[in-house]
Amino acid sequence: MKKWNILHRQEPSRNDLMESMSIPEEIGQILLNRGVETQDQVKMFTDPSLKYLRDPFQLKDMDRAVERVRRAISENEKIWIFGDYDVDGVSSTSIMILYFKSIGYPVDYYIPNRLEEGYGLNTEAIDHIASKDGSLIITVDCGITSVKEVDYAKGLGIDVIITDHHECQEKLPDAYAVVDPKRDDSSYPFEGICGCGVAFKLIHALSGNEEFYRNINRYLEIVSLATICDIMPILDENRIIVKNGMEILGQGNNLGMQALLEVCGLDGTKIKSSHLGFAIGPRINASGRLGFSKLGVELFTSDSLEEAKSLALMMDSKNTERQEVEARIHMEVEEILSKDTSYKDDKVLVISGKDWHHGIIGIVASKVTEKYYKPCILLCQEGDMAVGSARSIKGFDIFSALYECRDYMTKFGGHQQAAGMSMEVAKIALLREKINKIANYELNQEDLVEVIKVEYEIDQASLDLDLVDNLHILEPFGIKNPTPYFMMRNCLLKRLMPIGRDKNHLKLLVEKDRDFDVIGFNMAYLGTGYQEGDLIDLVFQVDSNTFNNRTSLQLLLKDMRLSKPKSLYPGPHYGEIIDLMIPDPGEVTHRATQDGKEDTTSRDKYVDYTNIDNIFKIKTLSDAKEVEKSPNIVFLGLGDSNLMLVNTINGYFRALSDKNLYYDQKIDLIYPRNIDKMDLKVYNKIIVYDYLDSYDQYNNLVEKIGDSDLLINYDKSDFIYLKNKFKMLEFDRKEFVVVYKKLMGINIGKIKYSQLIEATGLNPIKLNLILKVLKAENLLSFDLNLDRDTIQIEVLPRPDAKLDLEKNKIIEYIGEDYKKFVETYNL
What we know:
The chain is an alpha/beta fold. Helix 5 (87-102) crosses helix 14.
């Protein structure tokens, strides 16, 4: 179960600053959640200007890189751009070619074939460049770990300029210039730019300010795409680039981008960051992953719209092919995980297989990491060697972990959240063992539970298309400025069904005053354990969906929880509900020893009239006409130790929903009949979710709380749930006869407990009560296994004399509670 971290525990409230800047309350609250609080911060966030881009010469070695490129141009040298096959590498290569084309200087480019050459510089590629008289290589989005390869190039008389953004290893390549904001000796203020962003900086430095800003629209669309798709933080310069790039996306500055938008069906659509990440980017990536990386460069550098459209169609076809391959690999990975139980104990999933397309495994690794929230390394075996891709979770630096395992690999590179590697198949088991030792030291079980940051619990009345439009103010979304998630609780689940060709998506129809469509992409696994009629809590994004020229609101599911089940059984909380509703034999025995010692029905006996505060508290707590609910517990800050007191099934599930939102705080949940055994003074806050049964329970509560804060989380409308509790437990001899006759037909054996519930037609709580009473009267023995839905029953010999079941201690216990309940509330 994921953790939900509510960033703002109240409804969005009026803010003078946001109001003065005409920013809606919902959007203003999200800005405040991100620490955007001053007028300058708000202005910069909502309207980032290109004038804030930094001087590129602040990057280490940028001056040397510019000097070497200008010398190459002046001496008419052969310049080669060496890129990578993903979106970032293709984009980086493309903008460099566009720059040199704009100044009329011809250059060549080389992108390694992912299937044959793998990632980064390699000696075969360098030999090819040398054979074409290349004398200067400019790497983009790669090269920072290519120490041997750069030395090899130098030996052939080729200079190398490295522009990269990946993590540096202990030794930098001995290149003519190494431009990487992550260099240890770098003083550049922002490390978060992608590889294409570094190439963009090189173009800025080569052009000079005046020419650069005059021609900046040639590059902005492509750099924006790379920044989003390489999952860079959308802050600082990245926000400036992407915000301005998206405003011109598809407007003709780049014919390839225009054609790709048409193929994706996005021409004429207001482009959002999600379109870049989930529609445009995958088509660029698919070609590279399948060994056709040059398609992307040809597309973005094309001068012909007709040619660009033809290339875009080819890339769309490659994306369809990629989806089919991806689905097969994902299915095989899931099969391996299900059959090999040892993976359950691993904190890093290291999985290998044969005939996997190593251009696709990175996508599958991302999906596995998202589903299980564990770092994942997938390796495809090709003879004695394996090529792999790694994805990680927050708090685990996969690059650093792989660096500690470098002896097992022939090659690796990447950054904190993603990496690639090559290694011998024979060493995969060693990698799995060592990287899990590292993870066991660095990660605890809590780290393996995803924390979802939720902006606030939204009022369903605020969910409309206006909110969708207003959210565009916050775009572009990405790392450090994530797409906002909202929470809505106690939604009636009206329909739930898996959809899609492989039934891997989940579609819901829920009701909260009105109906909402909810879609969970690749989340069909979340739907198990729910049934129509349940009340559920949701975390979701707000989006729109256009179908047949009609645009409607759509909620994009992130996570869901059971709020209150339609049926108590089966369900994960049934055992706790039994404990809540039905006393155990120990409690019955405890009360029996107290018989005759005190008058348990006299109110006066329990009210201390010398303490006016106690009188007021008891009256307020128990009077159905006067009680008022405290503010919603979600909006309250809890202390170091807190207690939730529940007395009905409804109160139990309300408390459980609230408790789930405070995963990082100590919260106990108890039932009021246990108050006399509890030391309540240890709690900072005591939250009462239900009316209590009687004055003696109220008195115990008030006398024992000490200095603890007492919060009331029910009102007079909740009194019906207390009445229903006693009605559910009401003694009816006919029901005992029905159950006993059914059991006589079984006599001895194991059956499904759910079948017994259905056969008797009783509420599962009442059935459990009857079974306990019959067992206490030696009429039967049973062993109930809720996890397996089985009950082992043995009917014992009938007693000679007829039993008076109303004299059973459990029945008498409940009867005494009911009598006190009636007298307490004057019923």
